[in-house]
Amino acid sequence: MSKFDVLDQLVEEGNGYLLTAAALDHGVSKKTLANYVEARGLARAAHGVYMAEDAWKDEYYLLSARNSKVVFSHESALYLYTLMDREPSVTTVTVPKNYNSTHIAKQGIRVIHTKPEWYDMGITLVKTSFGNEVPVYDRERTLCDIIRTKKDVEIQTFQTAVREYMSSREKNLVNLMRYAKTLGVEDEVRTYTEVML
What we know:
Helices cover 49% and strands 16% of the residues.
């Protein structure tokens, strides 16, 4: 298999995206990568990220590819889980407390800093509407985060999220209560579960 074949396969597996890091991991030199990008007419979507002409621009995936510590959270996570009926006006991500996120905030993205010991709790991968996997907090962590910051969430969005989660077959109440205890919202979560179930 030639290096171009390897790169073709990476683009296909990446839904039209090619990451420099993935190419290098597969033994492709930067020179070969540059030749490939030019020969195939790929566009530079971001630093270290190339995009085929026929690929859909996926802002969530691009943000994730450029920032390895970003985890989609709050309303953005609700949207990815379809626990919200419209796309949020502002993308929200969570990063560790000590992470320098100035460059992300300058893009108009809401950045939440969390304690390092809470950062990994509930991270999973979810496909965007374009089929690309991005890191996002699971439903239970997201619900706890929404409850913790409910004064900053539109009431309709909050009510829809809680109602949709509680009626979902995919809910995990054991995890929900474990996260709620860790995040300090156990009483509020218990109240919502008793009312909604």
